[in-house]
């Protein structure tokens, strides 16, 4: 008997000894020369199963021993634990095998670095609030419901009394279906049960438009958690709803300029329309383009994929309520545009050959020099110019070529795999326009912008009109979602930030790019161009972005999950106009094309500020620009595009600093302009015609 006990004891000891040996063997896989498709497979031995895998990749599950869609050339880590708590930590780096992978891997840390500045949360960092997203209630939905579910579902019987404590897995209700039969609803958490539907009442009816539009119409009950539960990513990291510093920076600037200029975005709106219509166009005024041409060029630089795909992402993340905050941010951004474009004209430089050089580079350099801040002004101007050049090649060029090709190839499969030739043709088209300078660019944009915007707005109005019976539920969803969103949407702050962020990223108010185009306008009065410019955020955000959001909400597509932004918008239009996704794909190309030609001018003026104003310098830039179009359309550059897109936002740092310092000067110029307007001292076509007669 003793021998048997001894042998068992020895065996247990040996198991315990060997169990301490937790070993992890990895296999690194780079399946192709495409970016972001790296894989790591782990083989774990020893220890005590089951094992958990805490990856640095947030999209990889704690239960998965394999991580996929990893960026080549970037370090990833994993912490493997067994059931007893023993752990082994490993770091991996998948070797790059192509030039695109090298570029992508090199730029990924740079994106993270710039992102840590742009998207840093000052409020969370100072402990003002907790950015972690907590779920305080668990909403119980009709089992296996999705946005495409059809039929009528009624609450046949409650199996648990309201207010009672239920445990996860408890059967709580029986639901009857119009198609016949019943389905059981189960508690999905521990907590206190609250009814959202009375016994015998209808939970969801796909024939009821209010149910289709209303967020959360499919829920029959909610369970209040015993304690709020933090939402986590698949790898276990808590989900957060941050307040990005760049959004705060742009919003504070827009609010300050709105107050400083006496709500110029509202009281100057009618006059801005008169200016855009050409009522005050003086043919003898210095400059190269009309007020309307400058407006069309600047609008073409902002209206693009963000208005189509970006809004869909914003409404998916923030719900219908994000629309209201997006509109508010667009209205405030009008004041930022007024200030920067007024200064753009005031400090422009016109050469004897008629070429105009203006924008933030000039007013930062010479406007601050006038205030004995020469060193600061020069630094901010050069910093802005470097960012603008980088942004023009990336966000204003390669990103547009890349995304427009993907959209067209998605609707016209014959294009798939021919990105290089698409890029070549696009580069030739862009080249024929930009070689003629701002006058040529303006002549194209003044035709393309009204045409493409008109088609898009008309189609949106048709979709809304067909679903006009949803107007009540739609606006209820927007208002309710803006002021009382669920915790899953991040609460009011989360929805507000999503809306503000989309508006700020879309209309570029405060970024300074538009001031470069508006500086070329024919005018003797700088504030007049500020008035014209304040229409841009209104057109871009208050009109186009809002219409996109309304199309999504009126069709109920804002409830659909798992679909990319542009595709979601396309499906929403397609639900009413079956052939419109093809038109939308072409519209995306036109949006991208117009954005490219506008940004070529922005980048060229920043380039000439850095390297000289000769025509040779301009030609060198234009050649580079066309080469980058081909690269953008034919190669997946991932983090390179992300970084250059961030540079557009980063332009707002030097720009808004200068605007703050010179805002008093703009206010005085505005007062003088209003005095001349009231006194009839400004050039006006009707008045000029009478004097000639």
TrEMBL record:
GO terms for cellular component: plasma membrane. Coiled coil: none annotated. It is a multi-pass membrane protein. One of its GO terms (molecular function) is amino acid:sodium symporter activity. It comes from the Bacteria. It is found in: Cell membrane. The chain crosses the membrane at residues 243-263, 379-399, 419-441, 448-468, 474-498, 538-557, 577-602, 623-641, 647-666. The keyword Transport applies. Residues 1-19 form the signal peptide. Keywords: Cell membrane, Membrane, Signal, Symport, Transmembrane, Transmembrane helix, Transport. Gene3D superfamilies: Amino acid/polyamine transporter I. InterPro entries: Na/Ala_symport, SprB_repeat. Pfam families: Na_Ala_symp, SprB. Belongs to the alanine or glycine:cation symporter (AGCS) (TC 2.A.25) family. NCBIfam families: agcS. This is Amino acid carrier protein. It comes from Galbibacter orientalis DSM 19592.
């Amino acid at each position: 008997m003793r021998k048997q006990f001894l042998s068992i004891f020895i065996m247990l000891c040996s198991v315990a000894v060997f169990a301490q040996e937790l070993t992890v063997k990895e296999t690194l896989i780079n399946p192709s020369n495409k970016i972001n498709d790296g894989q790591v497979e782990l083989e774990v031995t020893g220890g005590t199963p089951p094992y958990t895998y805490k990856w640095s990749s947030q999209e990889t599950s704690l239960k998965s021993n394999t991580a996929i869609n990893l960026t080549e050339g970037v370090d990833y880590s994993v912490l493997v634990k067994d059931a007893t708590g023993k752990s082994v930590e490993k770091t991996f780096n998948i070797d790059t095998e192509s030039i695109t992978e090298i570029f992508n891997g090199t730029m990924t840390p740079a994106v993270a670095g710039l992102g840590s500045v742009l998207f840093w949360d000052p409020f969370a960092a100072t402990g003002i609030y907790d950015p972690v997203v907590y779920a305080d209630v668990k909403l119980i939905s009709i089992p296996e419901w999705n946005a495409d579910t059809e039929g009528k579902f009624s609450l046949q019987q409650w199996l648990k009394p309201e207010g009672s404590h239920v445990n996860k897995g408890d059967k709580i209700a029986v639901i009857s279906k119009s198609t016949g039969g019943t389905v059981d609803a189960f508690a999905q958490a521990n907590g206190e049960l609250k009814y959202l539907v009375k016994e015998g009442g209808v939970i969801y009816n796909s024939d009821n438009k209010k149910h289709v539009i209303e967020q959360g119409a499919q829920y029959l009950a909610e369970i209040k958690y015993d304690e709020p539960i933090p939402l986590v990513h698949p790898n276990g990291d808590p989900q957060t709803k941050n307040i990005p510093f760049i959004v705060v920076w742009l919003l504070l600037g827009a609010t300050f300029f709105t107050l400083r200029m006496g709500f110029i975005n509202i009281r100057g709106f009618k006059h801005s329309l008169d200016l855009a219509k050409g009522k005050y166009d003086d043919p003898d005024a210095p400059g190269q383009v009309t007020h309307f041409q400058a407006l069309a060029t600047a609008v073409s630089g902002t209206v693009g994929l963000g208005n189509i795909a970006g809004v869909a992402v914003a409404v998916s993340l923030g719900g219908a309520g994000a629309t209201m905050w997006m509109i508010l941010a667009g209205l405030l951004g009008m004041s930022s545009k007024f200030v920067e474009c007024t200064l753009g004209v005031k400090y422009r430089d016109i050469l004897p050959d008629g070429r105009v050089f203006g924008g933030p580079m000039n007013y930062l350099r010479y406007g601050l020099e006038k205030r004995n801040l020469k060193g600061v002004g020069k630094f901010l101007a050069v910093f802005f110019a470097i960012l603008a050049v980088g942004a023009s090649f990336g966000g204003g060029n390669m990103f547009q070529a890349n995304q427009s090709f993907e959209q067209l190839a998605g609707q016209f499969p014959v294009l798939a795999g021919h990105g290089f030739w698409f890029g070549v043709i696009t580069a030739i088209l862009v080249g024929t326009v930009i070689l003629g300078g701002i006058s040529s660019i303006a002549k194209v944009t003044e035709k393309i912008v009204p045409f493409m915007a008109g088609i898009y707005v008309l189609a949106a109005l048709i979709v809304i009109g067909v679903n006009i019976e949803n107007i009540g539920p739609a606006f209820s969803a927007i208002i309710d979602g803006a002021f009382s969103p669920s915790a899953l949407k991040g609460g009011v702050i989360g929805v507000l930030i999503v809306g503000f962020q989309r508006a700020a990223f879309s209309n570029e108010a405060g970024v300074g790019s538009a001031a470069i185009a508006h500086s070329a306008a024919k005018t003797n009065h700088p504030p007049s161009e500020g008035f014209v410019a304040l229409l841009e955020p209104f057109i871009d955000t208050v009109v186009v972005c809002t219409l996109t959001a309304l199309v999504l909400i009126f069709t109920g597509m804002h409830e659909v999950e798992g679909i990319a932004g542009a595709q979601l918008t396309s499906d929403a239009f397609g639900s009413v106009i079956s052939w419109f996704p093809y038109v939308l794909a072409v519209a995306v190309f036109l949006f991208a094309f117009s954005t490219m030609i506008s940004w070529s001018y922005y980048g060229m003026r920043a380039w000439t500020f850095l390297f000289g104003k000769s025509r040779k310098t301009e030609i060198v830039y234009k050649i580079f620009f066309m080469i980058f179009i081909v690269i953008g359309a034919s190669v997946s550059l991932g983090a390179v595009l992300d970084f250059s897109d961030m540079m557009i936002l980063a332009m707002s740092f030097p720009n808004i600093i200068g605007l703050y310092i010179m805002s008093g000067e703009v206010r005085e110029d505005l007062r003088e302009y209003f005095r001349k307007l009231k006194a009839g001292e400004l050039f006006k076509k009707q008045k000029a015609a009478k004097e000639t007669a």
